[in-house]
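Interim report, section 4.2 (structural modelling).
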Amino acid sequence: MTKMMKAAVFVAPGRIALDERPIPEIGPLDALMRVTTTTICGTDVHIMKGEYPVRAGLIVGHEPVGVIEKLGSAVKGYREGQRVIAGAITPSGYSNACLAGDCAQDGVGTAHGWKPIGGWKFGNTIDGCQAEYVLVPDAMANLAAVPDGLTDEQVLMCPDIMSTGFGGAESANIRIGDTVAVFAQGPIGLCATVGARLMGATTVIGVEAVPARADVAKRLGADHIVNFRECDPVAEILRLTDGRGVDAAIEALGTQATFEAALRVLRPGGTLSSLGVYSSNLTIPLDAFAAGLGDHKIVTTLCPGGKERMRRLMSVIASRRADLKPLVTHTFALDQIEAAYELFAGQRDGVLKVAIKP
Amino acid sequence: MTKMMKAAVFVAPGRIALDERPIPEIGPLDALMRVTTTTICGTDVHIMKGEYPVRAGLIVGHEPVGVIEKLGSAVKGYREGQRVIAGAITPSGYSNACLAGDCAQDGVGTAHGWKPIGGWKFGNTIDGCQAEYVLVPDAMANLAAVPDGLTDEQVLMCPDIMSTGFGGAESANIRIGDTVAVFAQGPIGLCATVGARLMGATTVIGVEAVPARADVAKRLGADHIVNFRECDPVAEILRLTDGRGVDAAIEALGTQATFEAALRVLRPGGTLSSLGVYSSNLTIPLDAFAAGLGDHKIVTTLCPGGKERMRRLMSVIASRRADLKPLVTHTFALDQIEAAYELFAGQRDGVLKVAIKP
Amino acid sequence: MTKMMKAAVFVAPGRIALDERPIPEIGPLDALMRVTTTTICGTDVHIMKGEYPVRAGLIVGHEPVGVIEKLGSAVKGYREGQRVIAGAITPSGYSNACLAGDCAQDGVGTAHGWKPIGGWKFGNTIDGCQAEYVLVPDAMANLAAVPDGLTDEQVLMCPDIMSTGFGGAESANIRIGDTVAVFAQGPIGLCATVGARLMGATTVIGVEAVPARADVAKRLGADHIVNFRECDPVAEILRLTDGRGVDAAIEALGTQATFEAALRVLRPGGTLSSLGVYSSNLTIPLDAFAAGLGDHKIVTTLCPGGKERMRRLMSVIASRRADLKPLVTHTFALDQIEAAYELFAGQRDGVLKVAIKP
Amino acid sequence: MTKMMKAAVFVAPGRIALDERPIPEIGPLDALMRVTTTTICGTDVHIMKGEYPVRAGLIVGHEPVGVIEKLGSAVKGYREGQRVIAGAITPSGYSNACLAGDCAQDGVGTAHGWKPIGGWKFGNTIDGCQAEYVLVPDAMANLAAVPDGLTDEQVLMCPDIMSTGFGGAESANIRIGDTVAVFAQGPIGLCATVGARLMGATTVIGVEAVPARADVAKRLGADHIVNFRECDPVAEILRLTDGRGVDAAIEALGTQATFEAALRVLRPGGTLSSLGVYSSNLTIPLDAFAAGLGDHKIVTTLCPGGKERMRRLMSVIASRRADLKPLVTHTFALDQIEAAYELFAGQRDGVLKVAIKP
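Predicted structure of the assembly:
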């Protein structure tokens, strides 16, 4: 008799609901993880709203913290009962993209080995982790042991938010002495702020209008907060940098306004590092782009995954270089996940991220 | 009594004319170069048409080959009579931008040391070289001795076209085994083709509809030519790459159509290296950009300058790794420069580049 | 009844002999390759002589070209009968080292995920390919389809010699306009010469005393040959570079003399890219090292492997950017492999590489 | 009548003495700086002892903090009376090395444009700054304005110690999550520790036996201190890293023992970043080097200079990302400089760095 589990399922645009599903059966390369804590991502809200299409019936969620319940027959190097996380992006390790160091664009199953966003599988192309159990594909490439002494909440940002936010700073090649602007201080923008500072930026300017988010930004390392409701953020950032502009601007919202402002505050030769998930075409203004002659760089980054990435991010937490617990503002049981979605999607009650406990 | 020289001068939108000007007097850091050969750039045509604004009366041109006539009092390491070139971009060497390795965005005279397109001075902010003589600023940073045995025509592409085109390949980080598409095979696109191949690209696809340009592209190293008048270049490039897309696409025209197509043919994680001088806003289509999640990079490059760059480019010519003489299709005396502009601007008679002989 | 095959086996120091072995049985992630062509590497000679220790009874060889005979139960994306190669280095894809882009130092089975030379398995830690059949571990990460139209001999250098030699050029970050010296023009040095030239070096200086090798070097792209028996190679290279030294020196022999000379010919800030397998401690002379103040870099490279690397190298061959067939100077049947070792180890008869045909 | 000033002069091996010298006359590109604070470097002690040769009569010292007294006729962008520093390394900006981004190996006056250690001029090839006044060559490339609110002592480490120590971390390409060992916690090692941490290292291991230095190291960011007198530092570092080794090891002393230990603690693929000034040949042990197959990198770094570097380092201080005042343990008047040398050379009284006040 098939054992059943509870899971949050995409039903139809507008609706994610708790349902019962069989506990997954695993293949030789997989692992079954019992989920002890997970969370909801802005992308899940896009899915709920039907803005990012997934198949009806899919279990959503891509940020698992848990315990190894069962290992596939070909999986070595782990033991059942081990506390682990897996990244939101679960590279196979063996695609051409992975072997070229481009794991997020993993192209397993494609003839040519690269596939846009192909590394993002959980809650996108396979069942996700807002459930009691989740099947982790290519387990040897993806399961990362949680260091002793770290709680679920401490590592809950590693699978996506922290990896993405830090990735934005890394893709911008932040160097000691850089000035960096981060547009939007939601969970990912906050992690970009932390990442920029960790890499040696000496001036970090956070752009944010919500006071609670501005406060967290300052606590986590922003030197200045620019409230775009109270001033022209471009003019203000140029003022703060004596007219020089910033070495790097990180976009962490996904709108034309922030993308454009990020470009306008760059010094010549600077880098716009884009993290946002856009929902319409973007415009590059001719003047901000110096007609194509400004040595500008625009780079995008999909959340880096894989067990080595997770190991590194957890070492940041374990070494107390960053403390991202302030991002976890609310806790819900899995049974209450519909309420959690409502709170999170509505950005009510100062929510940054919610912990979901199956 | 001031000695006079002939020079091509921007008079007003629509008109560049030969005129008489005083031979420049030089300061301690300058050199006076007697121009033996120069050429006309697409940018000069933009200036002529008034699309790129410069002050009326300015001597135009930024690609000088010549002989040192006189050295400033503080200039060491050169001798009068020496055959030299200077780049289109003449970095000071001492601005913050230069010292950070960002010479094209030289910001001499600005408080903050970075200025968009600040390194481009000849025929833009100071008198240019379509003249009998030209003053070279910061001579020690800019004069590069022509190796024995090379003719003026052989090194005439170094100051701008070759430096820019190669720069587009370099900014794309072409690696051995890459597949590269180059949109437009005008002089700069041709040099990008040569540069991509020199860096180890194993498939170079040139996009071009003009048969003469397509022929030169093949001769200089393109493996395939895609005629965008006869097919959808995006579909054709995807076909040529078995659906994989290219590792890098170099835009060498400056239009929305080529920019967009360049983005559409990229594999996930690929680089769009933009060389074109745009004249209007650009649109990034949401789908081609994978909503910001494709790990795409868009980079722009202004022609690298300075004597070390010129030395390296001339070593490419001297070692016969590339032969760019086929780009020089016509020769005019300086006296005939108005006719040269007419031919070049009209792209008549299969012209690629013209040699101007003062 | 177990089916048997012929294989070259390390018996004891001084002796590699043809023997009979069972055809390997494969696990779920493996593939069985029927070897159609393989070759002998300098490292195999070290193994034969007992200078590099492997266990007695091991099948040697790490450069397989062949056909897929059988696929493991979990292997997808291939079909039996397909023509393939695998690299000398067979990364798992899922170790921490691999996921960090450091595939050659694959540490499968180690707690910490990095192991020196851990990616080299064939003929080192598992049975190799100088045999009728070879088991390829982690097949999905390692099998690369041979493009139509390429012969075994054309791709025979890809698994090791070409990957290593090109790797030496890549690790040296060769750029357009560089001057490069390559010490020793054996098979790997020749490939380093080809790689340096493919990346845009405008002066490639090969150091070699054997006339036949010098000839091949010139044919494959060396601009100058320095015969170290007829002159001091350091003085000669400095003379050839007008006293400037080289941007990069590639060591492809594995001796103190070549290592030291490579350091002495570097310009300040230059890179010594070391490919040799050394057999004793090395000395860095104080003067050549500028007392540690010369911004020198010394980098070592183990042959990059994995199917994406193989795909790229085969694209170099398929695009005719390089032709390495001149390296294959002799052909033997597998039955004659002892004679092949004798010829190759003795460097007799102008041998560069031998093709072995099972 | 020539105006005179006091200056510390190298007399003969074993002796640096206070003497009277004419105040320098400046050329068009120079500036005269009135020195308000300077310091003594370990290299000055080498000079004093005759271990690093300079000409008798040279004014020593290369770490100037002061005020612009006079500007050369061609110097623009500064004003007399401005508070400035200059780096220990004073690049011209216009040499081939500088224009290639290799400023420390500035080769002004050499035909080929690169010269080992050529950027280090103060107290080496021209008069230095342990004096009331110092001539700063190529002033526009080298004078960096001190931000308002910073004291001389706060920026005193920027010209050399901080630039060198941070340079060691930068050359090691420290990334978020790295584990780094720093051998020796003298002034430069301490700055390497700070730099590694600023770049995101999550475990920094300082190797030091002097308790006072170990204490400062911990205060400035070392996570662990390994006392090499109490244990085998290699074994201890491998223990601290669970056998994995470090991603980067920074050598900051200049001895065979530290160089070798730094190599031995590297993980495969790791980087040894060497800052020490060696006084004899170095040995690379075969086993530690994995016979040349470990993908190891050994990189050396000479103190980066130039005004942009100084601007960046001062921004680190101004933003309070690092506080290096604890390194200034003693203060002397210029008149007492002989006593200062005695204290500093003898490493008496817990000295790290001395402030010298002309």
